[in-house]
Amino acid sequence: MKKFCFLLLFSIFSFFAFSERVISPVQGRFANKQSLILDLSDGAEAFYSYTSTNPLNSGFAYDGPVLIDMNGAVSLYVVVVKGSEKELYQINYTVSESNPFANGTFEKKFIDRVSLENILLCTSENIINVPKSLQFSIGDGEKPKLSGSTLSVSADNKLSRYIPCTVTDGNQNWRFIIFLSPGEAGSFAQASVPFELSDWEDFTFTGKNLIWCIDEGLWSASKESVKIDRTKPHVIYWQDVAYKAGNPIESFVLPAKPSVRTEDFDKAVAFMIDGDLRYRMSVFSSGAAGDSHADKGVYTSLTFDTFDGDYVKATAVFSLYCDGVYQGKIPVPYEIDRQPPLPPKFIASEPGEYARRDVRLKIDSEDGSKVFLNILGPFNVNSASYLDNNSEFDYIKPGEYFVYKYQPIELRAGVEKAVCYKAFAYAEDKAGNVSEISSYKVIIDEYNYFLDADAPSFAADGSRLHPYNSFEQALNVINQGKFVHFFVSGSVNVPKGMSVVSSNCSFTGMSDARFVLQPSSYIMVKDASLEVQNCVIQKDIETAQDSDQRFLVVEKSAAIFEDCELLGNFASSGTVLSSDASIVTLKNSGLTVQSSTYACGISSVNSKISLIESHVSSISDTAVNFSLKGGTFALNSCDCKVISHLGRILEAGGTNLRLSGNKYTADFDRESKGIKPVWTDEKCLIIEDKNNSEIGFSK
User: Fold this and answer.
1) Is this structure's pTM higher than 0.90?
2) Strand runs (DSSP E) across 28-140, as ranges?
3) According to the model, what pLDDT value does residue 699 have?
4) Are residues 549 and 573 in contact, defined by beta-carbon separation less than 8 angstroms?
5) How far apart are alpha carbons 305 and 164 in whole angstroms?
6) pLDDT at 11
C-alpha cells in the first residue's frame, strides 16, 4: 500500500526520465560507481532515495555532489522542490565494477582514480591525462570518441562547471565528472553608499536621517523606488536631514550603463567591459549545463575556456558593480567550440570489406563540416594475401588529402585480378576542430570465390565468410563469362548428368579438397580453360546401371592439373580424361582408372598432351594409359603402370612424341608375348625417346 501511495504521489509530479537538472548519473551500464550531481541554480531544493520510498518522506537532502556507493542495478529517485512545484526524476543504471588492466600500468592507475574519486578537478595546474590506449567522449549522447590525451585549461579561465566524460576500452565504459574550476578570483573594496540599485534603472534611497537628490533635482527624504535613465551619467547627492547651510554634502558619480563585449581568441572567449573604468563584473551564471557557480571574483575582463573535446553554447549573466556598488545584470551570449565533429562515415554501395563489383563510395558528415579525403589504390591482390585477409594492406598510411565534393567516387574492379582500395577521411568544422580519421578498406574481387562442402547454405555468396557449398553454385558463377578462381574445402558432390564448364576457371584445394562424381555424371570443359591444384577428383561406380563411361571431357579447351589425383572407377569400361583439339597438362599429379572390361587413362584426338613428374595406373582386363590420335604428346619423368590381361602404356597414331626419363611397368595376369609398352603407327614421329625403363613387358 505504501508503494502504491508513493507511485500515486509521483503521478501528480512533473516526471522526467532525463533532465538537465541531473548532471550525473545517467541511464546506461558503467564499470565504476557514479556520483549524484544536480543543477539547482534557481534556488530549488532536492531530495533523493535509492528505493521506492518517497524521497520527501525518507530520502536524503541534496547539499552537493555525493558518490552513490552502489553496485548492480540502481534506481535513483530525485524530487526537486521549488516553491509549490515538485519535479520527479528517475534514473535507472547498472554498475559492474571492473578494472581489467594489469597492475602498475597507466591505464590501471587512471581507472582506479576515476573509480575512487569520480569527480576530477581540471585547472591549468590540475591536468587530466587520459591514457592514449583509451578513447573518451565529452558529454552524453552521440559525441565523437577521441583518442586519450591531456585535458587542461587556460590559467585565465573563469568558466566553472561540471562536465560528464566517458572513457572506454571498446568493451566497457567508465563515466566520471570533470570539475572545471576557475583560476584565482579578483576582489574589490565596496564603497559605503546610502542607496541601492536593481536592474540598473530602479533607484532606492536607504539612508537614515538623510535627504538626497539626483543631479540638480529637488532634495527628498522618500524611500520609494524611482526610475533613472542609465544611458547617461548621474550624480547622487545626500546630506543630513537637518538641512543647514554649509552642511557637508556627499556624492557618488553614477556612470552610464556599460556593455560587455566579447572577443574570440584561440577558441576561448574573452568578456570585456565597455564603459567607465570604475566598473567591475562578476559571473552570476555561465548559463552552461553543469554550471557550478564557483567563481565569486570581480574583474574588468575575464575569459571562459575549456579543454579540447568540450563544447559550450550558452548565455552568461554578469553582475556589474561600480566602485563595489551593485548596478544590475547583463546577459551575453557566447560559444566555445573545442569539440571536433564526428568522424565521417563511409557509405559504400557494397557492404563489408569484400565486393564482387565496382563500388560507389559516398561520405556522410555533420552539417556544416568540411570533409578531407585520401584514396589509395588500386593495389593488385594475389591469392595468398587474399587468404591471409590481406593484412599487408593494413599498414598503408594516408597520403595527401583533398576536399571531398560530396559526389560519389567510383572504385573500379581490376582486370582479371582482385584489387584493394583504402580510403581515409576526416572532418573539419567551422571552428577549425578536426575529427578523428575514419578509414575504409575494400577488396574488389570479381574472380576469387570459396567453395566449402561443409558450409551452411544460409547467406552463401561465395565469399570467405559465406562460401558456396555446392558445385552447382560454383558452375553458375563460372559460366557467367569472367575468369573465376575457387578455393575448395571438403568433399564436393558433382550432380548427375553433364556439368558444362564454358568459361575460364581455376580450382585450388585448401583442406582435403575433393570432387566426387555421381555414377551418371561427368564434367565437360568446352571452349574454356580449367586449372586445378591440390584436389582429388574421383568417380566411383559399383554397378553398370545408370553409369557413364565418361569422366572428364575436354573439347577445344585447355586443362592443367597440378598436385592432383584423378581417380576413376568404372563398372565396365571407362576413360578418365578425353581430349579433343585441346591442351592437357598434368604436373606432379596422379591418374588412376579401374574397370572390368576396358580402362583408359587419357584418350586424345588432335590434342597437345603433357605429363611431368606424374604417375598413371590403368587396371582392367584390357588397359592402356594413353590412347592418342594426332596431336603431340610429351611424357617426362613419369611412372606409368598397367595391371591387366592385355595392356600398353601408350598407343599412338599420327602423333608427335617426346618420351624421356619414364618408368613403364606391366603386371599381367599371365606371361605376355610380343607386348611392348609403346605402340605407334607409321605416321607417328618420335622426336625423343631416352632414359626410359620398362618392367614386365616382352623382351
Assistant:
1) no
2) 28-30, 34-38, 45-49, 60-61, 66-68, 72-82, 85-95, 119-122, 128-129, 135-138
3) 66
4) yes
5) 16
6) 39
Question: Per DSSP, what are the bridge partners of residue 316?
Answer: 332
Burial 375-385 (b: 16+ CB within 10 A, else e): bbbbbebeeeb
Question: Apex CA 136: angle with CA 130 and CA 137, to 5°?
Answer: 135
Distance CA 506, CA 98 (A): 52
Cα(699)–Cα(173) distance, integer angstroms: 86
Outline where DSSP puts E strands in 123-233.
128-129, 135-138, 146-147, 150-151, 161-168, 173-180, 195-198, 202-205, 210-214, 226-227
Integer Cα distance of 96 and 113 in angstroms: 16
One DSSP character per residue, 489-520 reads EEEEEEPSSEEEE-S-EEEEEEEEEEEEE-TT
The torsion angles phi and psi of 22, rounded to 5 degrees, stand at -95, 105
Q: What residues form DSSP beta bridges with 617?
A: 592, 641
Mention every residue, 6+ apart, whose C-beta is less than 8 A from residue 684: 652, 653, 654, 655, 656, 657
Other beta carbons within 10 angstroms of residue 333's beta carbon come to: 10
Which positions ≥6 away from 267 have C-beta within 8 Å? 305, 336, 337, 338, 431, 432
C-alpha cell at 637: 619423368
- Report the relative pairing of strands 598-605 and 573-580 from DSSP bridges: parallel
Cα 459 to the chain's mean position, in Å?
Answer: 22
Q: What is the pLDDT of residue 542?
A: 63
Question: What is the rounded distance in angstroms from the CA atom of residue 302 to the CA atom of residue 185?
Answer: 10
Q: pLDDT at position 235, please?
A: 96
Per-position b or e across 316-330, b if 16+ CB within 10 A of its CB? bebbbbbbebebbeb
Residue 464: per-residue pLDDT: 83
Q: Can you tell me the distance from the alpha carbon of 485 to that of 286, in angstroms, rounded to the nearest whole number?
A: 66
Of 354, 361, 463, 374, nearest to 411 by C-alpha is: 361
In the 3-class helix/strand/coil scheme, how is 260-282 assigned residue by residue?
EEEEEECCEEEEEEECCCCEEEE
Q: What is the pLDDT of residue 544?
A: 57
Give the model's pLDDT for residue 8. Answer: 38
Which of 452, 481, 447, 475 lies closest to 465, judged by CA? 452
Q: Which amino acid is present at 353? A: E
For residue 474, what are the contacts with CB-CB under 8 A and spacing of at least 6? 449, 451, 462, 468, 486, 492
The CA-to-CA distance between both ends of the chain, in Å, stands at 113
* Residue among 443, 433, 474 at smallest CA distance from 307: 433
- pLDDT < 70 regions, the chain: 1-20, 183-190, 383-395, 542-547, 672, 699
- Residue 148 CA, distance from chain mean position: 18
Q: Could you tell me the three cell numbers for 162? A: 561540471
Give the whole-angstrom CA distance, residue 284 versus residue 302. 13
3-state secondary structure of 115: helix
The residue among 168, 182, 104 whose CA lies nearest residue 136 is: 168
Length of the chain: 699
> Regarding beta strands 72-82 and 45-49, do their DSSP bridges make them parallel or antiparallel, or are they unpaired?
antiparallel
Give the three cell numbers for residue 555. Answer: 573439347
Residue whose C-alpha cell reads 602498475 in the numeric block: 104
What does the block give as the cell for 556?
Answer: 577445344
